[in-house]
Design a protein that fits this description.
Length: 261
């Protein structure tokens, strides 16, 4: 009888141990899922803050935010599904910041050891192709350098069209650059001009006025009066109330108030 009772006690202890271990594993699993959700939410919030800086044209703050974000995302290498989308968005937005600051040299197309274009986010590849075209515009009279950048842009747009042939923007850019490249290759080379200084070739978009850049930005061209326009000929008129319109030159001044009572 004692042996049977001891066996029952041992079975109860084993069941209790399995129950405790199951609860412990479940608690650890829930804790891990909660930590993953909290981390993903934190990353999304930081991406939103960086995009707000980008919309305000505060590129320095945006670059700092994205640099810290990409560094912190390095710990997510074991769970790619967690950070891949956010990391791709961060890289595309950083590339857009470089593009609108005219840092085209930082957007050179990246390839593998065989020279093939890496499989990356289409928005980032489109930004690199756009940068190649803009780099060609900066070359001035260097015909071969311009053709080189146009060829790189054409290759980038062609790779994007292979992925999605219905992308109208990419198709338009591809046809435009092909025509420009064809016209430039058939035109007569221009005589060499005096080499300009680096500051003279520097785009206006990189100059800063206060906390906002000058020149074209992601929001478009800044407004300004037409060139050679005398703004003093424009006068400002302040509308008056209906009861003041018959007041002549005294309109807007108001008459003497009559005290009531």
């Amino acid at each position: 009888m004692l042996g049977v009772e001891a066996g029952r006690v041992e079975k109860k202890e084993k069941r209790a141990m399995r129950h405790v271990m199951g609860q412990t594993v479940l608690a650890l699993l829930l804790f891990g899922l909660g930590f993953v959700a909290w981390t993903a939410g934190s990353w999304q919030r930081r991406v939103a803050d960086a995009r707000e800086s980008f919309a305000k044209l505060q590129y320095a703050a945006m670059e700092s935010d994205y640099a810290d974000l990409e560094q912190s995302m390095g710990i997510a290498g074991l769970v790619p599904w967690l950070a891949d989308r956010l990391l791709a968005d961060a890289q595309r937005d950083r590339a857009a910041g470089e593009y609108w600051q005219a840092r085209y040299d930082r957007l050179e197309p990246q390839g593998d050891a065989a020279g093939a274009t890496q499989d990356r986010e289409p928005g980032l590849l489109a930004m690199e192709a756009n940068a190649q075209y803009r780099s060609g515009q900066q070359q001035g009279g260097d015909r071969q350098a311009v053709l080189h950048h146009l060829d790189a842009a054409i290759k980038g747009y062609a790779n994007l069209l292979k992925r999605n042939e219905s992308d109208a923007d990419v198709a338009y850019n591809y046809e435009l650059i092909v025509r420009l490249r064809d016209a430039l290759s058939k035109s007569r080379p221009q005589p060499a001009r005096r080499e300009e200084s680096a500051d003279a070739r520097k785009p206006a978009a990189t100059a800063m006025a206060g906390d906002l850049p000058e020149g074209r930005t992601i929001h478009g061209d800044p407004g300004a009066p037409p060139p050679n326009t005398d703004m003093t000929q424009f006068k400002m008129h302040i509308p008056v109330r209906p009861d003041e319109r018959q007041g002549g030159s005294d309109a807007g001044q108001g008459g003497q108030k009559v005290r009531k009572g």
